[in-house]
Amino acid sequence: MLLNASGCLDALTAPEVARSLDAFVTKTVTPLPRDGNPPVRIAEAEVGMLNSIGLANPGIDRFLTGNLPRLAKLEIPIWVSVGGFAAEEYAEICSRLDDHAEVAAIELNVSCPNVESPSESAARIVASARLATRKPLWAKLSAAVPDIGAVACAACEAGADGLSLVNTLRGLTLDARTLRPSLAPAVGGLSGPALKPVALAAVYACYQATSMPIVGMGGVQTGRDVLDFVAAGARHVALGTALFADPDAPSRVRAEVAVELDARGYSDLDDVYATAHPELLSIGTTTNGKYLLK
Question: Which residue segment(s) compose the domain that 96 sits in?
Fold first, then answer.
């Protein structure tokens, strides 16, 4: 299944791009409206992009009455990304989404810094959300932790149905003229090609640590990138920064995937799944689903 990374596509202004995906992931929704950070909020980096949007969103009330009915007209599955500053806030939003048939899944943005350990924070948020909804829950994790496999296991044990890997990493760029930070908040989230090796390592580790389905993301630009994430253990793949520069990226990447498969003699992505884990393939632990990438 091919998705967008949360916040990397406005489906209401680019509906045709959204319809070229297998599912659309919304920007993160919080209990109350947020204006986000002051500009400048996006800056180019040598190997990607930095952003510090600050979770700008209309809040759950306006999302349910305004955004969600319009998104439902896309007639593709809608995944709602949710965020908060306490487990109770995640649970509140999940409860509000639970009775909306338009919502196919909920992605829990649990990768914000927290005073608890990463594993305890993820488990607390997922457990609260699990009590509040029957929807499939995908925990979106950060790679900026000592042991992402342990965090993934904690999310799994708390009731998550899948993992989204990974969120951005903190980075900084300086203006060439002033030598001051390019972004108003100084640091931001690094995405794009520089993130790919980190994201691949996270997918690889979480595949080995859990049996959960994974959405791999981070620097996906080409069909070869898709194959890499699938080989590392991702069942699904999301496009992020690529969508800013190339709105046709979903169609292009699908065509490139077909070429990459043919060049290697594979019939479909199932043949590629987890091939980076030969020690696991040999004992038959990789048959837990089918791809919908078409």
Answer: 2-36+53-171+194-281
In order of 93, 94, 112, 154, 250, the CA distances from 88 in angstroms are 9, 10, 15, 18, 36
| Residues classed as catalytic | 112
236-279 pLDDT, tens digit per residue, is: 999 999 999 999 999 999 999 999 999 999 999 999 999 999 87
48 falls within a domain: no
Residue 291 belongs to a domain:
no
pTM of full prediction above 0.90:
yes
Looking at the DSSP bridge assignments, the partners of residue 239 are 4
Query: Which of 291, 7, 283 has the alpha carbon at shortest distance from 140?
Result: 7
Say which CATH number the domain at 93 has: 3.20.20.70
Question: What does 18-61 look like in DSSP terms, one character per residue?
Answer: HHTSSSEEPPPB-SS-B--PPSP-EEEETTEEEE-----B-HHH
Give CA–CA dist 161/142, Å, rounded: 17
How far is residue 129's CA from residue 95's CA, in Å, rounded to a whole number?
8
- Residues contacting 153, CB < 8 A, separation 6+: 119, 209, 210
What's the domain count of the chain?
1
Integer Cα distance of 30 and 276 in angstroms: 37
Q: What is the pLDDT of residues 74-104, one digit of tens each?
A: 999 999 999 999 999 999 999 999 999 999 9
